[in-house]
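Annotators were shown the component list below and the corresponding predicted structure, then asked to write short factual statements about the assembly.
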Amino acid sequence: MRRAVMLGLAMLALAAPYALAAESQAADAVNPQADFKAFRKYFTERFPKVPLNDFVNGPYSMDAGLRKQWEEIDAFPPYQFAVDKGKEMFATPFADGKTYADCFPDKGIGIRQNYPYFDGKSGEVITLDVALNQCREANGEKPLDYSKDDMAALTAYMAFTSRGKPFDIKIPDDPRALAAYQKGEEYFYTRRGQLNLSCASCHVQNPGGHLRTEVLAPALGIVAALPIYRSEWGGMGTTSRRLTSCNSQVRATPLKPEDEQYRDLEYYLSYMSNGLPISGPGARP
Amino acid sequence: MASTIRVRAVASGDTTEVQALVQHPMDSGFVKDAKGQLIPPHYIEVMEFQHGGKTVFTAFWGPAVAKDPYIKFSFKGAHKGDDLTISWVDNKGQSDSLVGKIL
Amino acid sequence: MRRLGMIGLAVIFSIGGFANAALAAPADDFQAALAKAEAANKQAGALKNQWTTTAQELKTAQAAAAAGHYDEAIKDAQHALALAEASIAQAKEQAAVWKQAVVR
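Structure shown to annotators:
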């Protein structure tokens, strides 16, 4: 009986009207610049008291009490061990004698804000995590698990070396890049899971609101703090870990880590955060 | 092998504020792993801070303290440049210690 | 006893056959219901829109069948089918309406 009710609710939710302005745009042309302006305007108008650069601090830009706790924690951050481990991993040569520094511009220091990028050769979006594994494989090493601590340690260190640098995500004049951007935008606004929620449901419609005891972060700047140490996890989490857990939380079967859809999503969200400073690695409740 | 202890001790006048972060699983013994087996208890039992040969702070921890514990406290009588010795012992008899400088 | 003869034996065997058919039916029905649900869930997978609850319900159905509770198992499989179909409907509808949610 309960099952029938739940199913009924799910079907009702599917038919639910959309709260946001439903101006059906006839424009099928993808216009990232226009999207960018509208996205930024939406958040800055909704939260006029939040300084633009503060959006990268997620829930802490939304809730003063939570912020105070975070400032205390950040004085001696829980991600410190991950950063130290990442630094060590980064400096350790592969079996063939090369290091990560040989794979990246500027020896891999202070470059996190340029990821993800669109790779013209493969026609795909390359995130930092994927680039690191490409580097490993090019040097005969086994790739790291995208959801586990080793990858989180490496990306924590690389984010740390980029702290404060503004996102600089480029969409080249390539229809494939525009398609990837739009697929990411589509993923972001598409409702999924039995709970029928999209990323936008929480992070565009309800930033600063509560989801049980958690304060929802605004979508603007949301990727700037990755990877994050979550108190809930008692440990670090990569972008993949966060996206797959968000999926299962709305009862959507997660995709494989760094699936094309996740990479396109990260591309879209990072582009929307252009100009905002890297705040990672972050600490979250 | 890097120490499990990170410390930052800052002297301001007569008072020194100490913050420490310790890397330790702090397994309570009540949590099951992915296979359904209990993870055996493994937690710090005693943590000590010493200055000038005297113990200035002792913490009696146990299974209720979470992973990678953080501690903050203040004490009087130390000066900038002094040594601060931090040590811990866990229920398996493992231990670590570190000597830090008061800033 | 001799009166039974070939016809008698044939009747006895055929009754036995009917009995077997009656016992086999729920298991077959379950397999059919499960196959339908799994096919639908696979279709949802092709749309990259499966629900975790669908997978759970499929497991529940299989567990009930393994324990011999076929009526329950069939109901569970039918519920899993409904969930899978809802997830397919969601994917198709969302593909058409997601643009309405975009901040302009």
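Statements collected:
1. The mean pLDDT of chain C is 86.
2. Residues 28-101 of chain C form one domain.
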